[in-house]
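Hi support team,

I've been running sequence recovery on a batch of backbones for a student project. Most finish fine, but this one hangs at about 90% for roughly twenty minutes before it completes. I'm not sure whether the input is malformed or the queue is just slow. I've pasted the structure tokens below so you can try to reproduce it. Let me know if you need the job ID as well.

Thanks,
M.K.
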């Protein structure tokens, strides 16, 4: 089993506060003989459509000494998981969960904007202290 990120519980609590049900902690992916673990799997009932939206959430804190190295690692892991999810659980959408300060420091800068656009990253931005989701990118459109 993978080691949990330092903000694992904060993201889990933020999702629950936002009306999500945690279904997997962690979410196991398998491709060929390789096992991978996304930090969380969750779903939310869409009342108007009477079906559920499913997500996978990979949590990254960017606590490495090098922001660039942390970005490289997060991007590589995100793209790997996204490829496997598209083939194995196509109804599930992958999000990269990052603290709001990381979003400001990295993803509002030109390099972060370039990466976000080129790789069409789905971001879940959370507040560490309040354990709340600050923003979904792209905006998630479901009834609460």
């Amino acid at each position: 089993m993978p080691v949990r990120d330092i903000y694992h519980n904060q993201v889990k609590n933020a999702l629950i506060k936002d009306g999500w049900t945690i279904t997997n902690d962690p979410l196991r992916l398998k491709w060929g003989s390789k096992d991978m673990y996304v930090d969380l799997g969750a779903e939310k009932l869409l009342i108007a459509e009477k079906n559920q939206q499913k997500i996978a959430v990979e949590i990254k804190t960017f606590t490495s000494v090098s922001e660039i190295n942390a970005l490289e690692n997060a991007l590589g892991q995100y793209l790997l998981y996204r490829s496997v999810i598209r083939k194995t659980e196509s109804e599930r959408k992958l999000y990269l969960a990052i603290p709001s300060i990381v979003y400001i420091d990295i993803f509002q800068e030109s390099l972060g904007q370039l990466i976000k656009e080129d790789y069409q990253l789905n971001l879940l931005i959370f507040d560490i202290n309040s354990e709340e989701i600050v923003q979904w990118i792209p905006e998630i459109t479901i009834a609460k």
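--
Follow-up from support: It reproduced on our side and the slowdown came from queue contention, not your input. The two ends are 32 Å apart (CA to CA). No action needed from you.
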